[in-house]
Amino acid sequence: MGFKPISLEKYIKIHLKSNPSMKEKEVRKALKDALAFYKSGKRCNCGNDIWVIGGAFVGNKCFTCITGEGYPDNDYELKEAITKRLSTQGRRHIDDIPPNKIAGFFDDDGYEVTANDFEKPSLCVICANNNDPKQELLCNMTRFDQKDATEFICHAYKKL
Ligand SMILES: [Zn+2]
Fold it and tell me: What is the whole-number distance in angstroms between the Cα of residue 155 and the centre of ligand 1?
């Protein structure tokens, strides 16, 4: 599951093979434009990062808005755009919160991160810190930092 990374050059070849009526120049330009859109930090209207390979040809939209599927299943995505940020949907921006109400933490774009935004690693379930409200913020930061990592490593783990 997930996206399958591919280089721009390789993908252009594949795209031309399945769309023989298109010219290499226009395929390259469409992909580069979509990649620039992604890199600039702009998103799909729904709050997700765009799917560069699909969005290049149907407007800058995310995988779900283009395909109607929840998750990619070995669909190609450019290597440079393989990392997708959390959707901004339903999340508060730091600028929209009164300064005296700001608590918790925020991602690099300034959107609030809550425990609902990532899965709890299985290590946490058997950790003494899991049920300690004083540890929650720290735990969530550790989880958030590693949400895309294949292995979860926590130096604060305490055996139950
Ligand atoms: Zn979308």
Answer: 36
* 127 Cα to the center of ligand 1, angstroms: 36
Query: How far apart are the C-alpha atoms of 56 and 77, rounded to whole Å?
Result: 11
53 in Cβ contact with 76 (< 8 Å): yes
User: Residue 1: is its pLDDT beyond 80?
Assistant: no
- Rounded CA-CA distance 26/22 in Å is 7
Ligand 1 centre distance from Cα of residue 66 (Å): 7
Give the predicted TM-score (pTM) of the model. Answer: 0.73
Phi, psi of 14 (to 5 degrees): -65, -45
Distance CA 114, CA 145 (A): 13
* Beta-sheet strands, E only, within 88-133: 105-106, 112-113
Ligand 1 mean position, distance from CA 34 (Å) = 14
CA of 96 from ligand 1 middle (Å) equals 22
